[in-house]
Structures are given as C-alpha cells and as structure tokens.
C-alpha cells in the first residue's frame, strides 16, 4: 500500500513538473506614437506675367506685394508677383488639417472697417499639388477673396497620399482664366485712397 | 548633363524635405480627459522648433466648434464664447517664450474642474509663431499656429445617438446621425449588405464624423454593387468608441428592374 502511495505521489510530482514546463509567459511589446502636429509654410514669389518662380522661403512672415504698378490698359493697379504658399504638415498618429482665415489690417479706404480693403482686392486659390509630378488641381474650396476666409470657409481637408495643399495669393485683376477671379472682388484703381493696405492670413493646424 | 540631373534631383529633394518638415512641432495635438467634479489634473505639452532659427511663440486659449457637415472642419472662437468652453478651467505657463534652433519648450497646464460638470467641455491651446517687423507696402502678414485640442468630458458621460430619416437617394442610402448625448461623438461607421442567405455582398466604411451634442450629420451609404432581384439587409454600425455602438438594420428590396426600396428599419 505504501509503495502504491509512493508511486502515485511521484507520478503526480512528475505531472506537475510537466505542467509547469508547459506554462508560457508572454511579454507584450508596445509603443505609442502621440497624435502630433506640425506646420511649415514655404512661400515662393511667382512673376504674374511670366509665371517664373523666384526663391522659396520657409521663414517668410509676409506676402509683400510691394508698391503696385498702374496698368493703363485696364486702369487698375497690379502686382509684379503672386505668391504660392505650400503647406507642409507633419503628424504622428494623424496628419493635422489646416484652416486659413483672414483678418483685415490697415485699410486707408475705410479705416477700421473691412469695406474695400485688401481682403476685397486679393484672392486665395486653393490647390492640391502632387509631390512627385508637381501637377496642380484646384481643390473644392476653389478661389476666394481673402475677406471671405472666415470661420471654417478656408478649412482644407486631408490631402490625398503623396500630395500637399497649396494656397496661391494674388491681387485681384478680374482674370477670367480658370480659376477665374471671384466676381465680387475689386481691383485697386485710382478711386482708392492712396496708402498702405495690409491684412493677416492665419494658417491654423490642428488634429481632427 | 549628369551634373544637371544631380542638381535637379537635389533641388527636388530639398523642396520635398522642406515641405515635410515643420518649424513648429507639437508632440501632443489632443488631450482627452474623463473627469469628475472638483478634480484637478496637471499635465504638460512639448513644443519643438525644428528649424535652424530661433522662434518666438505665444501661447493662448481659444474655443472651437465642429461645423456642418461635421467632417472635421472647425471654427475657432475667442476664449469663453462657445457653449461648453473650458477656457475658465485650464491654466498654462509660460504664455510667451523663445525656442532656440532645434530646441523645445515644456508648457505646463493645470485643469481644475468645477463642482459640477454636466457635459463635455472643449477648447484649443494655440502656439503661435509671433510676427516681427513692420509692413511698409501692400502686404499680407503670415501667421502660423498649431493647436492642442482639449476634450474634457464627465466620467459619467452620456454617449447616445440614433440613425434617423433613413431614405434612398438614387443608389445611396442616407441617414441622419443624431447625437443625443452630452459629449462630442466621433463615430466610425461601417456597413454591409447581406442577402437572405446571410452572404455578405458589399461592405464599406464612411468618412468619420465629428458631431457635437444636439447636432446631426448626414451618413451616406453608396449601394454601388448591382443587386439582383430579391431581399437584402443593410446593417449600419456606428462605433462610438469605448464599447458604445449604434446599429441599424434596414430591409431592402430590389425589383426586377433593379429599383431599390426600403422596406423597414430596426435597431
């Protein structure tokens, strides 16, 4: 009887050891990437007559149209350059979206108001640019007066993979070439009060 | 010729690299907190300057609202003006600072929840690159800012929604996703169409929605597959996260001409 009990004890010990040997521990390996946000603007002047691009800048804080010149054919003032603003965004878990808004600054026509200011006489064209080919397509936001960029009207979506968003900013000339200048815009003309017209374009990047 | 090609390639790489980089980089673009009345919470954010020039940064709070069609587009409003603003609950420091080239700055924030919180409170902490210099001619100032969204919601929040007004528009089934809860809902909506035998013929996912309490957004399900005459079930599943879902089963009938009609719908 004692022998039998001994065998049973030894057997159960062996089984227990086998069961212990089969036990597996798992180590979960994980890493979290934060929902990060980054924004950089690359500003490039482009000659409005020849479409020749000038030197790009990633540190520019203004779009300087400079002193406008009179076009005697159309009786309006025009700028030598328009400016492309390429929007570079970076994100961790998700690329941020960008909203463009405008605020009127110095307005000699009607000081302290937005009436007939720079925002009425300049436009923004929203484009999606293929990073590889440089091919540009006008986005669903189209072309707007800067003064119309309020609230979420200048909210850009997430660009398709391999593309980035770009905003071309220029003085309103009444161009009918697609994308045509908005019909509610105005040119600078001799009816405008002489002086310096300014405004602020704000590019806001947030995650969704 | 080879030198020219190398030059062009280097220029292209340079431009692309410049567009992929960021001057102001925020490590945490969203803070989501489930809180109880009277709770205090301390945290911090890290802002990086990824450029070779020092930059001046101004930090300030604004409110935000998701706008129709609630695809994620937002309006930003002065602090304290939006319903459910969290502007009075969050303090942060420093508010202006200079980040050296390739440097970083830690911004500490403190959240103090009042004795009652009935609904979600929201806001955005902006980091704006300050503009220096005066404008002498016609010019547009360029301001860049990145924001960290704050989602401060009660720990006993009500996440409730319904899919209403289910109708057919051509070959699309459309519905209104109605937020009946007290926090912003960001549903991930998937769908599938199965035939009577249970075989799934079509499945897909709609774009994410960002729907504030009390608002509704359109959900569009394209029935692109040519369905044969018969009876089908369209199942729409809106995942509200954290285990909350809205499910709708819609009975569809397709006649001999391929015309689709909605028979009924149920939860």
Task: Describe this structure as you would to a colleague.
The complex is a heterodimer of chains A (208) and B (267). Chain A has two helices and ten strands, in the order αββββββαββββ. With 208 residues, chain A is mostly beta strands. Chain A has one domain. A five-stranded antiparallel sheet of chain A has the order 1-5-9-7-8. A two-stranded antiparallel ribbon of chain A has the order 3-4. In chain A, strands 6-10 form a two-stranded antiparallel ribbon. Chain A starts with a helix and ends with a strand. With 267 residues, chain B is mostly beta strands. Chain B contains one helix and 18 strands. Chain B is elongated, with a radius of gyration of 25 Å. The interface between A and B is large, with 61 and 49 residues. β1 (37-47) of chain A pairs antiparallel with β1 of chain B, so a sheet runs across the interface.
Tell me briefly what this model is.
The complex is a heterodimer of chains A (208) and B (267). Chain A is mainly β and 208 residues long.
């Amino acid at each position: 009887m004692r022998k039998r009990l001994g065998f049973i004890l030894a057997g159960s010990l062996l089984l227990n050891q086998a069961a212990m040997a089969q036990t597996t521990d798992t180590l979960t390996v994980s890493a979290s990437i934060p929902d990060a946000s980054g924004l950089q603007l690359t500003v490039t002047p482009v000659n409005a007559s020849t479409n020749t691009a000038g030197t790009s800048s990633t540190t520019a804080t203004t779009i300087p149209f400079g002193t406008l010149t009179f076009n005697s054919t159309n009786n309006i003032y025009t700028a030598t350059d328009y400016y492309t603003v390429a929007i570079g965004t970076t994100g961790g878990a998700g690329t941020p979206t960008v909203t463009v808004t405008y605020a009127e600054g110095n307005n000699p026509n009607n000081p302290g108001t937005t009436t007939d200011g720079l925002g009425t006489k300049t436009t923004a064209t929203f484009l999606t640019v293929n990073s590889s080919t440089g091919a540009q397509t006008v986005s669903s936001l189209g072309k707007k007066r800067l003064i119309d960029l309020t609230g979420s009207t200048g909210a850009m979506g997430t660009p398709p993979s391999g593309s980035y968003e770009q905003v071309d900013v220029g003085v309103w000339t009444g161009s009918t070439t697609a994308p045509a200048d908005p019909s509610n815009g105005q040119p600078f003309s001799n009816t405008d009060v002489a002086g310096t017209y300014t405004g602020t374009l704000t590019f806001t990047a947030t995650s969704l | 010729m080879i030198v020219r090609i190398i030059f062009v390639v280097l220029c292209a790489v340079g431009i692309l690299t410049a567009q992929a980089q960021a001057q102001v980089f925020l490590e945490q673009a969203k803070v989501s907190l489930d809180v109880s009345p009277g709770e205090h919470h301390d945290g911090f954010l890290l802002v990086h300057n990824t450029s070779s020039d020092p930059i001046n940064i101004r930090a300030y709070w604004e409110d935000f609202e998701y706008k129709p069609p609630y695809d994620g587009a937002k309006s930003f409003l002065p602090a304290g003006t939006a319903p459910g603003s969290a502007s009075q609950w969050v303090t942060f420091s420093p508010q202006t600072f200079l980040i050296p080239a390739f440097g970083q700055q830690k911004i500490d924030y403190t959240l103090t929840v009042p004795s009652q919180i009935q609904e979600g409170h929201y806001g955005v902490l902006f980091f704006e690159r300050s503009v220096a210099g005066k404008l002498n001619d016609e010019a547009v100032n360029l301001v860049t800012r990145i924001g960290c969204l704050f989602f401060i919601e009660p720990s006993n929040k009500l996440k409730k929604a319904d899919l209403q007004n289910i109708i057919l528009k051509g070959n699309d089934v459309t519905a209104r996703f109605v937020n009946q809860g007290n926090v912003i809902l960001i549903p991930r909506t998937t769908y599938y169409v199965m035939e009577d035998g249970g075989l799934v013929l079509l499945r897909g996912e709609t774009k994410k929605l960002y729907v504030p309490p009390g608002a509704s957004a359109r959900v569009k399900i394209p029935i692109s597959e040519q369905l044969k005459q018969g009876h089908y079930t369209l199942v729409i599943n809106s995942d509200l996260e954290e285990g909350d879902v809205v499910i709708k089963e819609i009975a569809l009938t397709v006649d001999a001409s391929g015309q689709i009609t909605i028979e009924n719908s149920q939860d």
